[in-house]
């Protein structure tokens, strides 16, 4: 393998690594966005449960105030029984007392039902608060991990890009122009190995004569099918 081909192979390897790193870096903000969205939904769910508990507790307090007023009204009505002067007034107050007691009884029933609901919601909320603390710690940990990975990828991309730049300076400009043109036409791959008569880029068969020349010659040879620059590589030796 001649010097320029060797440099092109190294450049292609770095370009492939940069592409892989950039692809990974591109996907990470999406993961971050999804993580934030899940966290937002979780908080909304928790806030909704808390709101329902507070509404139920407020309703309970309102009913207790109503019952207190009802008991006061009942007490006053009973006190008036001793002040009546006619049978008609007496029966009217009895009817009023009956209505108040009936209303108070209904409020008491509502309060009893709400007490069970409040107790259930309180227990559920307490458990949710404990889970929320764990979830928030996990969320922060995952978010920091993704952010660190983004920073790390940026450093790696910068380092690889710098190495690419140095390699590019060591390769003739006309060869770099050819490399870039082929890379643009073949999804970022301009240089590939060939083994057993097959191009590693398009996976098409290379003419036998050209393949034999590829193994012996130090010239830059292109695949007749995809135009990528090809070089012979004994992949069995590469594996061992």
From TrEMBL:
This is Zn binding protein. It comes from the Bacteria. PANTHER family: PHOSPHOLIPASE C-BETA-2-RELATED, SCAVENGER RECEPTOR CLASS A MEMBER 3. It comes from Syntrophus aciditrophicus (strain SB). Residues 11-184 form the CT398-like coiled coil hairpin domain. Keywords: Coiled coil. Residues 46-80, 111-170 form a coiled coil. Residues 198-230 form the C4-type zinc ribbon domain.
């Amino acid at each position: 393998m001649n010097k320029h081909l060797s440099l092109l192979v190294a450049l292609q390897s770095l370009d492939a690594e940069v592409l892989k790193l950039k692809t990974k870096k591109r996907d990470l903000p999406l993961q971050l966005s999804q993580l934030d969205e899940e966290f937002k939904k979780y908080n909304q769910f928790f806030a909704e449960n808390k709101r329902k508990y507070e509404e139920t507790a407020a309703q309970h307090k309102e009913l207790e105030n109503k019952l207190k007023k009802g008991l006061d009204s009942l007490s006053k009505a009973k006190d008036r029984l001793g002040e009546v002067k006619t049978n008609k007034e007496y029966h009217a107050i009895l009817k009023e007392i009956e209505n108040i007691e009936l209303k108070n009884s209904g409020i008491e029933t509502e309060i009893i039902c709400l007490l069970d609901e409040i107790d259930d919601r309180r227990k559920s909320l307490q458990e949710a608060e404990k889970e929320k603390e764990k979830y928030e710690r996990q969320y922060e940990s995952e978010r920091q991990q993704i952010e660190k990975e983004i920073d790390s990828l940026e450093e790696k991309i910068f380092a690889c890009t710098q190495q690419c730049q140095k390699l590019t300076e060591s390769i003739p400009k006309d060869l770099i122009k050819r490399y870039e043109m082929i890379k643009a036409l073949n999804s970022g791959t301009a240089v590939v190995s060939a083994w057993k008569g097959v191009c590693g880029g398009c996976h098409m068969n290379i003419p036998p004569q050209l393949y034999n020349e590829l193994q012996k010659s130090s010239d830059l040879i292109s695949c007749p099918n995809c135009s990528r620059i090809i070089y012979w590589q004994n992949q069995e030796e590469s594996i061992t």
